[in-house]
Every structure is written in structure tokens, then in C-alpha cells.
Amino acid sequence: MKRAIIAVAALIILGTHAEAQLSKADLDEANRMLKGTLYLRINLVCAHDWGDVSFWMRGTRWQTGLALKTLTEVGPTGSNVDLSQPRVADSLNRRGVVWWFLPNDAIRNAKVYKTDDGFLEIGAEGLPPKDLEVTIRLVGANNLDDFKAAFQRAFSRVPLQDDHAEWPPDVRKAIGERRPLLGMTAEQTYCVVGRPIEIRTSELDGKKVETWVLLQDIGRGMSLGEVQDVADDVTTDCTGFPVSLEFIDGRIASIGFVPAAADWNALSEKEQSEVEKMVEGTLYLRVNAVSNYHLEGRTVVSPGGSNLDMAVLPETFTENGAIWRYFPNDAIREAEIIWEDDGSVSVWAEGAPPKKGEVMVHLVGFMSMDEFKAAFNRAFSKVPLQDEHPEWPIEIRNAITERRVVEGMTAEQAYCVVGRPLGLSRRDDAGKQIETWLPPQEIGIGMSVEELKEVYADLKENRTGLPASIELIDGKVVSVTGAVK
Known about the structure:
The protein is of the alpha+beta class. The chain contains ten helices and 28 strands. The chain has a seven-stranded mixed β-sheet with strand order 19-18-23-22-21-16-24. The termini are far apart.
């Protein structure tokens, strides 16, 4: 059993913080309810901080200086990880927050006891591969009925799909495999992915549209090593969830980019040697190569797309500490192939002058050499992007070379200059499709120049030099504002 602790306190804002009033008979009944294996109905969110905490292990409460401080709040009438709010609280989305335990994860050996300050806590163990100690505090459970209500919000006695025999077999199977499925309701989807980071609402042809922006990294703003300090069985800090899910009238209508599994072992030795040769010489990026301040690459590319497609942008790209230094058409060299333990391939390289520093792009979703090449060619070009298109007007190709957006450019041509915008809005006006792009203005989002220099010593300012906004009508640039001369 790992000596990492998840402390989940239910300091619920929906009820009072009065101490528990359960009698000994009530506590005995509560413990009978906790026997056997239980399945979570909610996310258990914690923060990787230092501080004194008591935790439960093998029937005994212990004290430790390393605390995974509780952030999930649950009580008889609700929780702070349900779907009632459009965004999760900032306290759940800051650096150091860990989202590893999800709905339908199992725990066992649970026991309820009273703390020294009069509250109730449930000590339990996660099941492999999440075999961490779990401590859950229930506040507002002032009687046995309150405890039962909170219990029902937090736990199920059976896997969540087995709790709903009335759901279609394909839906129940997908929940068991943790796969969102077209046609799922929000309740069914929550059983798979838990609480989305953000819920956006709109209308389309009179129908309600809801877009869930899903969690992409287990540890918010954390390196893989930091996440492994919490849970050493973790081999990737990626959740593997789609970037987004779109619901129309309450059911999933579309599923965003999914970082699909890969297996470089499926490539022969000859093909692996060919892969090594593919990165020789100078390469030109087709996508933004975004990293965090640990220089861990956030850009993921598959044969069918990337997590920088023009749909919903993952939170990891917009949070403080995200670094947008490398854009489409930037040159990289001295590239190396990293054969990752999860079967994916990472391309590590050095930026070519005037940009100095490390670059990393992850390639996923391939089980053959043809699929690997498709992913590779979505991420890289052997020549500058404008040289791939001699059919484009010379003034357009010159503008791309000079990294300038000019009126009359198509969306594809503008993307070669600015890459994926941080902000993207679309609307229909009298039959014309209008898009507004808001390119990133800071290289390091929310970072000072001094912090950025710790990552890239050659940088003197935290500005991308890109336009503040670009407007396109029917796929053509009609105005550019805020461009740096």
C-alpha cells in the first residue's frame, strides 16, 4: 500500500459545519453501510501541499507532514463537483490540485469514526492501480439520515453502470470501459468523466447546446514527477479524455479530439530506424508546440487531428504557466525520438535561431507505420509552410515568411502565421459565417519576464508580437487589429 493519502473533507457549503451527533448505535449502522467494496459517484479532488493531516491506514489514524489536502465538498444535499455550476471553483483548478480518483473508482475497507474536533471521517483504501489511502470527512451529517443522504451522494454499492439496469447495454458497457458514447445523457457521461472543468451553454436552431471542457491532466500545472510523488503508479499525467463533449438537447452529439493510444512496438525494427531518420535535419512545425514551465510538451497530435484543432482548447493551454513560444512555421533541429513507456512517441528538439530552447510534441494514435507517418506529417513539414504551396499568391507567401497576417488570407494561411488562437468565436450574420480569432499575446501565460527567463534564458520580454484579433468572414481575413509592427 502506497504511503500517499487522499484526504477528502466534506466541508459542504450547502449545510452547517456542526459536529456530528451520531450515537454509538448510529455509528455501528454507518459502518455496516460501509462494508465491502464501494464505488465513487463523484470526483475526489485534493491539493498536493504540505501541512499536518491525520489519515486512516489499516484501522488506525496516523499523523503526517505531507498532506494531500481535501478539496471535494460533499454533504446531504450536494457537492462542489456536481454539475450545478458552469465552472469548477478556482480552488479546484489551481496548480498542485490532483484529480486522480473519478466516479466509478472503487474503494474498500472503509470505516467511519469521529475526529477529535467532532466531525465524521471515513477511512478507506483505493483498489489497484489506485491503491492509495483515502480519508473522507463528512460535515453536516448531524444524524443517521444525514449520513445516509451524504453516503448516497458519494458512494454506490455496485459499479455505476450496474446501478441502472434500465440504461441501454451499449451505454452500460461504455461506462464500464470509461468511454463517452454518442447519445449518452449528462448523468451517464458524468459516470465516465466526472466533473468537467467548464460547461458552456448556447443555442443552435432553437436547441440547447452544452459543451463540456474536460480535464486533460491529472495534476493541474504539475510535472509527471510531481504527480508520481502522489501516486507512483501513474505513468502519464494525461487523463486520456476527449478535449470536449458537445450535448444537444441533453445528449452527446459530438466528441472532441481524443488522445488515442499508440504502440511503437507495433513498428518493425526497420520501421523504427526509419522513424529515427524522419527527424534528421531541419523540421518546420505545422502546429503550436506548447509546454508548461517544466518544458513538458502539451501538444498532442494523432493521424486524425490534434488537441490544438479549431474546436475547444484544453484548459492546460490557457492556464497560468502555459508557454506559447513555438508556432507553425518555426524551425526546429537536432530532433530526437523518445520511445515512451505508454507506446506513444515524443519528438524532442532544439529551436533554430533566433528561438533557442527545447521543443516537444507528442505523437499518438498509431498502430502502424502509415498511421505514424500521418501523425508525423500533421505535426511537421520538411520545408517552410509557404514553400509547400507555390499556388498561393506571392504576397501571401511573403507575408507568411514575415509572420504577418494580411487581409484576404484564408483561414489555412492565417493559421500558418499565428497558429491556434487562444480565443475563438463563431457567429452567423445574415448568412455570412464570421469568426474572430484572439491569438496569444503572452509567451508565458500569467508569468513574469523573470519567471519566463528561468525557462528560456534568451527571452527579454513576455510578448508574442501577434495581432490582438483577426476577423474572418466566410473563411477570409477581413480585418487585423493590434498587430505589432
